[in-house]
Write a structure and sequence with these properties.
CATH topology: Rossmann fold
Strand order of the largest sheet: 1-4-3-2-5-6-8-7
Largest sheet: 8 strands, mixed
Radius of gyration: 16 Å
CATH architecture: 3-Layer(aba) Sandwich
Bound molecules: S-adenosylmethionine
Number of domains: 1
Structural class: alpha/beta
Number of strands: 8
Helix content: 25-40%
Amino acid sequence: MTSSDASEPGWWDRRVVPWIVEKACRSSEILEERKRWVPRAHGRVLELGIGSGLNLAFYDAARVTRVTGIDPSAALLAKAAIRAADASVPVELVCAPAERLPFAAASFDSALVTYSLCSVDDPQRALAELRRVLVPGGELLLVEHGRAPDAGPRRVQRWLTPLWSRVGGGCQLDRDVPALLEAAGFTTELETAYSRGPRWLSYTFQGVARSPIAG
Ligand SMILES: C[S@@+](CC[C@H](N)C(=O)[O-])C[C@H]1O[C@@H](n2cnc3c(N)ncnc32)[C@H](O)[C@@H]1O
């Protein structure tokens, strides 16, 4: 594992959040989403916020040259390293935040993010960085939760997010995922729906975003 520019987290983020993340991300519903989207990744793949590496089992070895997984949590990357050892594709793990990717421009053919865009501190900067490191026209495969379309759950998202993000590793409940992607220049084909669970947590975006062909 290599390390780049990740700041030292506090006790809660080191000890408790990795446990919560691992638990929360192992639902059967999320498993089905992983099975659906991860095999579409191809070539040199960048996985943003790889966490404990729960996607690694689903990459298609016939399509993928290498997976580079980044995450600022050394504790989660240690779990990912164990899964990487069993993966059918070469895996490189880098301790870095999505906002400061230590990679050259156009060095990835596709990217994957599952339930991590909600947690990055600065999603605009992260998406600008992703756009820089993807080849023109590169695909981002995305499964994410965010801002609900209905007033009731949206109200809960607004008042709960300050507390939720403090205990949940920075997770913001109310990010407008399509707007963020489009502002960063990506074109999107996303399916949206409430999945299982409380409506303030379960409004989900899944699909593909493409970086611009030129520039
Ligand atoms: C809910 S977990 C999802 C993990 C994994 N993608 C999955 O599907 O199991 C959110 C992840 O975002 C990571 N994260 C938080 N801030 C980040 C940042 N600035 N850049 C990249 N990843 C970040 C966390 O460390 C955590 O691994």
